[in-house]
Amino acid sequence: MSGDPSSAVLVVVGAGPRATGLLERIAANAPELWAGRRELRIHLVDPHPPGPGRVWRDEQSGLLRMNSMAEDVTMFTDESSTIEGPVRPGPSLAEWAAQFSGRGPRHPPYVEPADPDVLAELRSLTGSDFPTRRAQSAYLDWVFRRALAELPPTVTVEWHRTTATAVTGPPDGPQQVHLADRATPLTADLVVLAQGHIGSLPAAGDRDLAAFARRHGRFHLPPEFSADADLSGLRPGEHVILRGFGLAFIDLMSMLTEGRGGTYRTEPDGTLTYLPSGREPVLHVGSRRGVPYHSKTRYQLQGPRPPLPRYFGPDAVDGLLAEGRPLDLRRDVWPLMAKEIGFGHYHELFHAHPGRTALPWPDFVAAYDRLDWYGDERAALVAKAVPDPADRLDFEPLDHPLDGLSFPTPDAFQDHLRDHVARDVTRREDPEFSADLGAFLALLSLYGQLPRLVAAGRLTARSVAEHLDGWWQGFFNFLASGPPGFRLRQLLALSTAGVVRFLGAGIRIGTDETTGTFTATSATVPGHTVHAPALIEAYLPAASLDRTEDPLLRELHRAGALTEEVIADATHTHRSGLLAVSPADGHVLDPSVGGTHPRRIALGAPTNSRAVAAFARPRTDAPAFRQNDAVARALLRALGAGRVTWDFSNSEQEVSII
Question: Which pTM does this prediction carry?
Answer without folding.
Answer: 0.93
